[in-house]
Specification:
single chain, rod-shaped
Amino acid sequence: MRTVLQWYQHGGPFIWPLVLVGVLGVVLLAERISYLVVRSKIHARPFMEEVITLVRAGKLDEALALCTDHQSALPDFGIIVLRSRERNETDLQNVADAALLSIVPSLSRRLSWMPTLANLAVLLGILGGIANLHDALSAGSGIAVQAGVASALRPLGVGVLTAIPLVAGHSWLTGEATKLVTQLEEFSARLINALIQRPDVRLGHRD
């Protein structure tokens, strides 16, 4: 830890832009993780099965009440479709598509910024390393050159350390967002089938 702090303290002028990128990355990671955790804080499979069962039993008000009792992406979608009171398949599909368009984009919002910030951190680290190395070589003396070479690696190390959690976070958050979208699409298809009394097809199940 002390070595990392020394890198920040003696890494040259490009350390401060790297600190700014790191702070932005941490804020973005925290905001996206918090949002996706809130949007996915429900056991999707049991919830879907319970809602579909209620709808197929004609208990629409109970299914709607179940959705309003939870706050996440799946219940929000269910509320929109069930409140529409539509029974025509085309109309239901239009409502479901509109609901997905309102929910899905928010799940992946700002995720593309993370690879950009990671790349920027690495590039700033390289640029800082080149600047420090240039200053060291300009100094002329052997000891100064050695010290300059050592300091040239510091901004590069900071840039890499900043990029790693951003890349890892982007990968994890993208996977979580994709999983949520898949659940929403499945819930959409099955809920529409239930509302128009079409057989429910589930892989691995026999009704």
